[in-house]
Amino acid sequence: MDLGIKGRRAIVCASSKGLGLACAQQLAREGVDLVMIARGQDALEAAAQSIRDESGVKVTTVAADITTPEGRAKVLAVCPDPDILVTNAGGPKPGDFREWTREDWISAVDANMLTPIEMIRATVDKMIARKFGRIVNITSASVKMPIEILGLSNGARAGLTGFVSGLARQTVAHNVTINNLLPGPFATDRLLQTAERLARDSGKNIEQVMTARKAAVPAGRFGEPDEFGQACAFLCGAKSGFISGQNLVMDGGIYPGTL
C-alpha cells in the first residue's frame, strides 16, 4: 500500500531504539526523509545508518535531549518545517506515588506533556500554511487504563491527551491531523524496566513477572515494534486526513472498553 508520503520530511523523536525507531523505519520505507533525535550519539548513528542502507532516504541525526529547550532548538534549527512530527520521550520512572517529589512530577510533565506541546507549537502553523501535516504522539495505553506503578506517566500523558483532543479539531480543516498512539506491552526496554520494578515489589523473579504479564494479554504475546511503526506510518499517510484527535490503543486486546 502506497501511503503517498514519499519525499515528505519527518522529525521522529527518541528514535534510536524501541517504538521511536520502529516509526522511523516504517516512514523511511515509505520514502520519507528523516530527522532522528536521541540522547545517545552512538546508538543514534547506528540506527540512522541502518535505515539509510535499507531505504536510501536522507537521514539527519541530532544527538540531543528533546525534553530540554536546548535540545528542541537544535532539532528545529535542522528541520524547522517538517511535514510529519512523531513526538516521543522516555517514560518516567515507575513506583509508588509516596516516593515522588514535586521535582519528579515536574520532570514527568515536562517530558511527556509539555515537550510534545512545544514541538507541536513550533511546527503546526507551517503545516497549516502548506495544507499538509501529520502529528503522531507516542503516549501509553495507561491513558485509557491507568497502571498503578506508572502514576507519573498516567498523569502527564493524560494531560497531553486532553490538550490534543481540543487542538486536533481545529487543525484538521487544514489537512493537519494530530493523533495519539497508545502502546501496551511491546517488546522494548520499557517493558523490561516496568517488569523489574514489579518483580522487586512482589518478591518474584523477572521470568515469573514476564510470564504473568504475557498471560494477561488476550493476544497471548507482546507486541512487536514493527507493528507499532506500521500503525504510525498509516496515520501519517496522505489518505489519513479524515482521522484526527483519536487515541489508537495497541495492547493486544487488554483494554476492555468500547470507547
> What is the approximate shape?
globular
How would you spell out the order of helices and strands? Answer: EHEHEHEHEHEHHHE
Helix content: 40-55%
- Overall average residue pLDDT: 94
Strands of the largest sheet, in order across it?
Answer: 3-2-1-4-5-6-7
**Number of discrete helical segments:** 8
The helix/strand class is alpha/beta
End-to-end distance, in Å? 28 Å
Name the poorly predicted regions.
none
Oligomeric organization of the protein chains? single chain
DSSP strand (E) fraction? 5-15%
Radius of gyration of CA atoms, rounded to a whole number: 18 Å
Major sheet: size, sense and barrel closure?
A: 7 strands, parallel
Structure description:
This protein is an alpha/beta fold. The chain has a seven-stranded parallel β-sheet with strand order 3-2-1-4-5-6-7, sandwiched between helices. β2, α2 (about 40-55) and β3 form a beta-alpha-beta unit. The chain starts with 8 loop residues before the first strand and ends in a 9-residue tail after the last strand. About 45% of the residues are buried. It has eight helices and seven strands, in the order βαβαβαβαβαβαααβ. α1 (about 20-30) packs parallel to α2 and α4 packs parallel to α5. The protein has helices at about 20-30, 40-55, 70-80, 100-130, 150-170, 190-200, 205-215, 225-235, and strands at about 10, 35-40, 60-65, 85, 135-140, 175-185, 245-250. The longest helix is centred in the middle third of the chain and has 29 residues, at about 100-130.
